[in-house]
Amino acid sequence: MTHAALLAELAACIGDAHVLTGAAAEPYLTDWRQAFTGRALAVLRPANSSEVAQVVRLCAAAGVAIVPQGGNTGQVAAATPDTSASAVVLSLLRMNRVRAVDLDNDTITVEAGCVLQTVQEAATNAGRLFPLSLGAQGSCTIGGNLSTNAGGTQVLRYGNARELALGLEVVTPQGEIWHGLRGLRKDNTGYDLRDLYIGSEGTLGIITAAVLKLFPLPRAQCTALVAVSGLAQAVQLLQRARAGFGAGLTAFEVMSLACMSDVTRAFPQQRLPFADLPEDAWCALLEVSDHSDGPHAATRLEAVLAGALESGVALDAVVAVSGAQSAAFWHLRESITLALARAKACVKHDISLPVSLIPEFVRATDQALATAFPGVALRVFGHLGDGNLHYNLLPPTGASNADIQRLVHDRVHEAGGSISAEQGIGQCRVEDLQRYKSALELDLMRRIKLALDPQGLMNPGKVLPASGSLRVP
Q1: pLDDT per residue over 40-54, tens digit each?
Q2: Which among 84, 196, 212, 344 is least buried, having the fewest CB atoms inside 10 angstroms?
Q3: Which Pfam families has this protein been placed in (predicted)?
Q4: Which of 454, 470, 469, 463 is nearest to 63 (CA)?
């Protein structure tokens, strides 16, 4: 079948207005970081899972690859096509319905194109909490969140996206629909297909809908911004917070003072509520959820912070006295990525390590980078509560970004950590995955890919190399 004939059949399936080519397709072809721009045969915008299945069947018959795309907010260009113009981009943004809310079962069923913030608001309107929370929540979609097993700021209490999903609806590479939208918390009937698709970045099939867990709305949330002299002290503060709040500790973020300074320079309307901190200081952002009331939450938080200040673990602390001040503290944290986006040369890492190893890892790796690349500037922040750091840096002029990344990832691997904690592999980290995964792990991943997608048409070149190099010996 010629490409022209395929496009005609696709238009008959989903409508001419939703087969985009030329200038209309361009907004879908560049990743969020603007590091990769691809080309596509067309951008397709189906309205429901049946149309997705029809599209996949047509493309499979024509041997045309498919790049699924949600909000296109990812950091590793997993939803961006290559430059061959031989694939279609399949946008799920029209599939944005909340299908059902089951309060007795504490679940919400949504389509993959639902924006995360829309799901949060639907849960709140029903008197429940959907806890997945990301800086991009106003534009990222549930399908993208699940395909990358997104983390965010409340993993410490509620887990990653995988822990928040009970059932899925998936279109397979053959254009079949797996109707797995079961809101069951217990189901031991064979292999867990749900967990196979979550985190696979669209390389095994296309998630079109999901049943997600809901939780009781906390009666009160209390936020504090705390200054500490280093990461070792931040870990000590984390242990005090865990002991003091247990499951009530819903977030524990850390940000270097350099990151905070970038934010206040880029966005002068934002202010850090501390003065005269040492240059190597860090800030910790704590959030406590309470099912009693606001005064009870504040009293518990102030008691833990008072002990930290008296012992010298903390240098200073400010407890938010209003929702507006709490939002301002979170806005500081969420603006770091935007501030760094202005530094086009930023080299980003999304690593995870056991919390106990993080202070020494950062100290030693900072030193190794300074020795190997004089003038390097570190910009480190992240989710200390679950061991995930965004270990970013601004390289000196003339330095090789690839050499910098190799140094950092080698040290992460040696320490038993992960080179991708929550952002995925996409096309940015394919070579790294080949370097650090064991031969057996890679072989098992290839076998799964070949079994489910023998034509290699699902998001080729993401996570694993393109199909031509996937043959199992």
Answers
A1: 999 999 999 999 999
A2: 344
A3: FAD-oxidase_C, FAD_binding_4
A4: 454
